[in-house]
Automatic annotation (TrEMBL), chain A:
GO molecular function, one term: ATP hydrolysis activity
Pfam families: ABC_tran (PF00005)
Top-level taxon in the UniProt lineage: Bacteria
Protein name: Amino acid/amide ABC transporter ATP-binding protein 2 (HAAT family)
Keyword Transport assigned: yes
Domain ABC transporter: start-end pairs: 6-236
GO biological process: L-amino acid transport
Family from the record: Belongs to the ABC transporter superfamily.
UniProtKB/TrEMBL annotation, chain B:
Name of the featured protein: Amino acid/amide ABC transporter membrane protein 1 (HAAT family)
Location relative to the cell: Cell membrane
GO-annotated biological processes: amino acid transport
Domain of life: Bacteria
Major subcellular location class: membrane
Pfam families (alphabetical): BPD_transp_2
Species, as recorded: Blastococcus saxobsidens
Automatic annotation (TrEMBL), chain C:
Renumbered residue ranges of the record's region Disordered: 25-45
InterPro entries: BCAA_transport (IPR051010), Leu-bd (IPR028081), Leu_Ile_Val-bd (IPR000709), Peripla_BP_I (IPR028082)
Key words of the record: Amino-acid transport, Signal, Transport
Membership in a protein family: Belongs to the leucine-binding protein family.
Alphabetized PROSITE patterns for the sequence: PROKAR_LIPOPROTEIN
Transmembrane region(s): none
Name of the protein described by the UniProt record: Branched-chain amino acid transport system substrate-binding protein
Signal sequence interval, chain numbering: 1-24
Pfam families: Peripla_BP_6
Positions with biased composition (Gly residues): 25-43
Residue stretches making up the Leucine-binding protein domain: 52-387
GO biological process: amino acid transport
TrEMBL record, chain D:
Pfam families noted in UniProt: ABC_tran, BCA_ABC_TP_C, BPD_transp_2
CC per GO annotation: plasma membrane
UniProt protein name: Branched-chain amino acid transport system permease protein
TM helices/strands, residue ranges: 6-26, 33-50, 62-82, 89-108, 120-142, 175-195, 254-275
Single GO molecular function: ATP binding
CDD domains linked to this entry: ABC_Mj1267_LivG_branched, TM_PBP1_LivM_like
Membrane-protein topology: Multi-pass membrane protein
Compartmental location: Cell membrane
Main location: membrane
Organism: Blastococcus saxobsidens
Keyword Transport: yes
Record key words, sorted: ATP-binding, Cell membrane, Membrane, Nucleotide-binding, Transmembrane, Transmembrane helix, Transport
Location of the region described as Disordered in the Swiss-Prot/TrEMBL record: 556-610
Amino acid sequence: MSDPILTVDGLRVSYGRVEAVRDVSFRAEPGALVTLVGANGAGKSSVINAVAGLLRPAGGRITFEGQEITRTPAHKLVRRGLVQVPEGRQILATLTIEENLQMGGWHTGGGGSGAIDAMYDRFPVLAERRALPAGALSGGEQQMLAIARALVAGPKVMLMDEPSMGLAPKIVDEVFRVIEEIRASGTTVVLVEQNARRALRAADHGYVMQSGEVVHSGPAADLLADERIVQAYLGVESGT
Amino acid sequence: MQQLLNGIFIGSIYALFAIGFTLVFGILDRLNLAHPAVFAASAFVGIELVERGGLSLWAALPLVFVVGAVLGLLIERLAFRPLKGRADAHFAGLISSIALAGMLIALLQWRYGPDTRRFPPGSFPDTRFEVFGAQVTLVQVVILAVSLALMVALTYMVTRTRLGRGMRAVAENPTAARVLGVNVDRVTAVTFAISSSLGAVAGVLFAINVNTAQLGMGAAIELKGLAVIIVGGMGSLPGALIGGLLLGLAEVFAVQYIGSSWIDVIAFGLLFVILLLRPQGLLGARKVREV
Amino acid sequence: MRTKLCTVAAASAAALLLASCGSGDSGGGDTSASGGGLTGEGSGESCTIEGEVPIGAVLSLTGAAASYGESQQRGLELAAAELAGNDGVTYDLTIEDDQTDPRQAITLFDEFVNDGASLIIGPTLSNAAVQADPIAQEAGVPVLGISNTAAGVTEIGDYIFRDSLTEQAVIPQTIAAATEEFGLQDVVVMYSNDDAFTESGYEAFAAALEDEGVEISETITFSKSDTDFRALLTQAQESDPDAIVVSALIEAAVPLVTQARELGIDVPIIGGNGFNNPRLMADAGEAAEGVVVGAAWNSTSDNPENQAFLEAYEAEYDARPDQFAAQAYTGLKLVDQAVRANCSAERDSIQQALGEIEDVPTVLGEFSIDENRDADHPAVVQVVENGTFTVLE
Amino acid sequence: MLGQYATTLTFIALGAIFAYSFYAVLIAGQLSLGQAGFASLAAFSGAYLAPSGADVGDVPALLIAVAIGMSVGALAAVVLGLPTMHLRGVFLAIATLGFAEAVRVVLLNQEWTGGAQGLGVPRVLTVGMAWLALGLVAYWFWRMGRSRYGRALEAIREDELAARAMGIDVGRHRLAAFVTAGAVAGLYGVLYAYYVRLIAPDDFDFTAAVEGLVTAVVGGSTMFLGPVLGSGFLTAVPEIQRAVGVEAGWIRPFLAGLLLLVVILFLPGGLASLIRRRTRMPADAAAEAAGERAGRSHPPAGDTVVALAGLGKEYGGVHAVRGVDLEIRAGEVVGLIGPNGAGKTTLVNMISGLVPPSSGSATVLGAEIGRTPVHRIAAAGVSRTFQHSKLFNRLSALENVLVGAHLVSRPTFLRRLLWLPSARRDESAALRQAARCLERVGLAELAASRAEALSYGDQRRLEIARALASDPSLLILDEPAAGMNHVEARRLSELITSLAQDGLTILFIEHNVGMVLRTCTRVVVLNFGEVIASGAPAEIASDPAVVEAYLGSADEDPAGGSIAEGTLDDPTSAERADATPDAPPDPVVDVRPGAAGDLAPPDSTPRDAT
């Protein structure tokens, strides 16, 4: 087993006096797909935002490629290859699709037109509408745009926050297919999902969060198989 | 005819002032009330460069541009960045920029005294033209041209360049911009710098145009600048130009048909009507939806 | 400038209570403030007063009127330095800044009255004078205005004097001279209508023009902060006047004159006291040529006081004085005159002596205080020729 | 001793009164610069119209002038306020500034005002009178602070939308605040005139307005003593500089600017933030049980509470909700479930009146949705919580709940001014009601904490308490259990059940399906804006369509097309080509033009993205 590309140790995040994340630890091996699952408000997004440098952790240690990045701001992390696909997609609705993709290549200075063309090949729907404001896209298309935009940045680790949110099941399937492709191309993926079942099916390793803490972790398949965990923490009482 | 030209030229001054103002106000949604102080400061610095430094105006202008940019960075750093994330950032930003403006004007008085000053005669060619029987000076033509050019150049910058994209991204969604690796603080600072350097150039041209520079020159034009921004549409660069020209023409025709005492009522009346009927301004996009 | 030091602790103490600060004895009466008696022996040049004579001056050193305040400060300090060279009487001149804010002027008058000032000079603006002078009047402290020209200031009471000629005293003479010189028949009048000084100047112009039978074909107003007058001047040009009469401060005068010439207006421009400033020629350059200025102070007068003043001022400040400096300088000299007349710096004594000033040679010419406590001295009508004021004759 | 500082003290009082006119609107979150205009109109008309002191005596003349001035100021505020009340933030500031400048120019051009030379006024005001007036104004705002009206204004400042949902008529309250500002500014104008002896229109220019605003903000706009502190501070700065011998000239304004900058940067709440704000908890809150409950008679069980017919909502061509028919009867506990983005929040936003439907009709407790303003719907008995807590962050937990009790408490402000015992009774009744609600959700101990300092779960509970305080007939909860652990969720479930026993009808959105099945009498499943199932929990749990929609397909069927290639029809897609490009994802989050400056809640990323 190689050294982890990303480690999080004892992470704590607070908003004022409110503690949203208490002592969370996890790691991702290079090329792995790791998922953090849990109900709304469990603190998953806070973890991912702290890793991405959007939030200042109150405590703990985060390393990326062996170097500490606990308090490194987001813009430096993107340059180093730690890229986030944020929750709610956060596309820039008033900018065109092309401009959104160019923003993905912000840190390269130019706009990475080669990478953008590659995205147009991969997502032809974006190429067709490249001059339209991104806000005119459908939810699923916006999610694709958000992913494509992150890919333009050339990530080594991609942090994905609820990519299936608000999408129809068929489109969720497609999003997950894209995620698996990304992972297959060697990029490490850290996936935060409410759709636990779906996420665990795709992942190598899973962490179940509850009220700001990791309450279970293990190989994804094992977690998925443990009906008690699914019932108790994933908000699903009766299922398939 | 003369009045028409007068209106256009006054209007282009308003526009020149407002373009810098609106960049920060419209794009970053921050009202920087230190902008008028930069406007005044640059005129005095420009005069000193020409008078003491013996530079030609053309050499002094780029330097003034730099001075303006530095002031912009200082303003952002001292008056706005510390307020980031505060619940009252809006009010507080107004006040901190007013405080900074007061300090800047005080420093100007210390350095240059309270008297009016002007660019030494001959620092700008005193060329005049006659257009359809109306008198036009070269300065006026330059100001109009500069306003137009700046409007076009800035519009290009905002819509076509990487920096412009970054500015718009920061304006629309700072979080998304950060996720994409944009150093939001830096883009904000650069926006302030550009805004202030435009204000600085405006100050110099203004002082040449009216042949006087005063500590209060920024304050005198401040309210009209606000009116122009609102009339033209917040953050809209062409809006600032059109708003400026509209205000200039309205004033001139007020002189002719209503009476000179009522000029300012026209400006603010126009402002008021626009705010009530079309709050987004003539060219502004309706950014915010009411629910 | 005298500084009243008091503990830093007091400064940082609660803002509401400024107790324990100030010069200790806050007596409002005629008794002295700064140790030693204020009544001395001898008279005139031989007068010797033991204590320092406390004089307060309230000037606008910052804010909109700062440029006048600064001139006045220079004039006063120059006069104070000269007076310090004389034997017998020493003055303790405290110059304070009202920030061009009437509330500060009122506060400062109050403080000077409480601190035992023998006399208060100022304030710079007429508006502030109307608001602040009554405080001194009620307390029996004489006030000498050095730049207030609005009507009614000295009517506040018998302790209020001024050495500044009102616009009413200067302007009729200006209009009469100009009418004769240029054969005026109809003129356009322009003035800033948001300033007390220029508005009262306008009223004087209007009255004088009517007296001379000159028609006002158009009246145009602007704001004191305006600097672009092209639209207004174009409007003025349309009625093809014989002259343009302007009541404005120097800040507006310079751009107005420049732009008028730029637009090809070559009729005479007639201005009031506000134009009597060397900046007019310095900043408007050639455009200022031919501008007629009615003024309280003849800057080119060759009387020995004036020559000495010009020389001393230029030596000290490397700049040419304006009317504000001349009137301020004269003001303090007149105060000295009044103190020495009775050899007393008691308030009532100064008040009485000021009222009796008559035919004193000053920078402003032979100077008297009239029965209304207003200044009485020759005014002058000047015209700009070759970059300097010359008397229009 | 005092005599020596009479002038300074008078100006402190005058400055503070003027600052109160800014405080009056800042407290409701409005930024207006029109006060200089009100003061100007008031000062001139008061001084001009009031009889001479020689005829009626100085003080009566002053009082008459004050009466005239305050009326003129208030009237001007109404005239300006009616058309501008819908403006927010900087827009309102600039519109009102335009008004003030126009007033200045008009007055300059009037004969009777004396133009630039001004209008002479006798000095009547003494330091005592000034402080008396200040005392009265401060008293007014002090008594207002803890009244129902004052709390409503603060609630509007903190979160206008939530305030509306609590039944506060925001428009009326904002106008009232504006009129108060006008009257106080009028008072200032007249007092100023009767002190300085001469007023000119320029005394009330932009600089004056800015100074008033600065005073109010520096002093602090969340505490009634703020303006006094601000004025004391700003008036003292030049005095102190003089006293310590700072040379007159440029250095003084420089230092004054520096001080101002330091205060604004380092004291976020203004000088008043140095004073602690106390929250009183009624001593007998829990002890004194029900008895005098304001009591709303709930519709009898089985009556229709909510009736939706073909209700739909589209945002820029995206159908968030389409053709929903739904009936909810009194006494039901309805769980609304569905995947993220199914349109649940949009649906409840429509039911609670926050979002007008684009099609169909809805009647809630007799109020017709779409035509009835939010506060009326709240008054009809609808109360709700929000998906992302919309608490009044800078208010204490107890105050939050007191605002919730707005509808069932009686106005107390005017009676508080007179210290009437009945006001006290009403206030303590409201306090008890609030305390009971806090008690019920288990937050009694945290009553004094600021809402923003509570933990996520406590914030959710506080929202429920606030919603309960209005004694609603229909309670809508939007993801109440989010962020709660299963013990807390179980307790919440018990609370909901007990509320239902009290006769409330409850509609709640929840992702914790277990909790929904446990708690509800009926479950409605929404997907892609449409109701796909509705029925008893047991039926729903076994409905394969629900399982498919909600939990995701069990098997990995290859999709029939691809969204990336544009070959798959995306149900969330825009149907119109000219879709509004910048439709904000969550229509409820941002309703104020210039809403910037709001502290984002910890987790503000929109969830309901269509």
